[in-house]
Amino acid sequence: MKQVTISLDGVRDKNIMQLKKLNVTLFPVRYNDKYYADALASGDFTKLAYYSDICVGAIACRVEKKETGAVCIYIMTLGVLAPYRGLGIGTKLLNHVIDLCSKQNISEIYLHVQTNNDEAISFYKKFGFEITDTIKNYYSNITPPDCYVVKKSFPQTQAKK
Ligand SMILES: CC(C)(COP(=O)(O)OP(=O)(O)OC[C@H]1O[C@@H](n2cnc3c(N)ncnc32)[C@H](O)[C@@H]1OP(=O)(O)O)[C@@H](O)C(=O)NCCC(=O)NCCS
After folding, report:
1. Which residue is catalytic, options 31, 84, 112, 139?
2. Which of 8, 59, 129, 160 has the fewest CB atoms within 10 Å, measured from its CB?
């Protein structure tokens, strides 16, 4: 069988349309300008995934600063087009972000997932994420309207005295 290359690429003004097209296909939610501005501002934390030269998935993150000064990563979306699922592309996208967090001493990654999205919940649990909260009526246009907060915390390296 022919080997297919799966590669990741950053988002820029020139290719942000790819992310928009994926989101329309993948999610029942319309994302606003702030979503795309946050994705562009996150730098390496937002990536498109290519199956050979076809754009088939993406992870889009927002970099957040807590009151304590600690930085955390919010996964706004992670999705792979249905025909390309089960090939390790979602794993590659999520591992990329987890690796960056470890390298940059980031304290946690979190996201919201609709309570009926069993596939995504079990996917995140495999990477050490845990459900930490339930938010009722988080979504206004989809059923069920509730979401879980799903989180992965990283042990912080202490600064030397
Ligand atoms: C969650 C999601 C991103 C996973 O992407 P993926 O590319 O299928 O992930 P992987 O190929 O790395 O597979 C991960 C696991 O999915 C399961 N899986 C295997 N084949 C699959 C298939 N054909 N379809 C779906 N899931 C499959 C397996 O449990 C696999 O783990 P394993 O390889 O250890 O057996 C993808 O299912 C998706 O886009 N879902 C819709 C969007 C969504 O709900 N996103 C999450 C909310 S932000």
Report:
1. 112
2. 160
Domain residue spans of the chain: 6-153
Q: Output the CA angle 101-45-4, nearest 5 degrees.
A: 105
The residue behind tokens 């297919």 is 4
Q: Mean pLDDT in runs of 10 for the chain (161 residues)? A: 89 96 92 97 98 97 91 97 97 98 93 96 97 96 94 76 46
Residue with CA nearest ligand 1 atom 13: 86
Cis bond upstream, residue 28 (ω within 30): no
Residue 147 alpha carbon to ligand 1 centre in Å: 19
CATH architecture assigned to 6-153: 3-Layer(aba) Sandwich (3.40)
